[in-house]
Amino acid sequence: MVKLNAELEKILIERFSKDSLISLATAADNMPYVRTVDAYYDNKSFYVLTYALSNKMKQIKENPNVAISGDWFTAKGKGINLGYFYKAENKTISDKMKQYFAAWIDNGHNNFEDENTVILQIKLTGGTLVVDNEWIEIDFTD
Length: 142
Known about the structure:
Largest sheet: 6 strands, antiparallel, barrel
Shape: globular
C-alpha cells in the first residue's frame, strides 16, 4: 500500500474531476445497498448532490462506512452529510458542482429551495487504482 502521491492524485483528477458516474454502496440492517450516483473527485473525496431524506442518506446516517467503484477504481471511506447545497460553507463545492454537472443540475429535478438538497462527501480512506494493468493500493489517510 502506498500513500496518495502527486502522480496518483493527477490520475484521479484526470479520471474523476468532472461529472463521473460511480457506484456507491451503503449498508443497513446487515444488508448491502448499491446505486449509481453522479460525483466528482477533489482532494481525497468524492462529492454527490443528493437529498437528505433519501434512503442512501438515512443509511449513511446510521452507518457512515461506504464503498465506491468507477473507471478502474474502487475505494472505501466515510459518508458525510455537508448539509444544504447553498450553505455558505459549501460554496466552493457547490460552485464546482454547478460547473461539472452543468448538463443536468438545473433540469428541474433538483429543488434548490429545499434545504434537504444536500452535498454528500465521500471522504476516502483506502482504495485500489488500476493504472497500465497494475493494481495500486492507496492509503488516503493523513
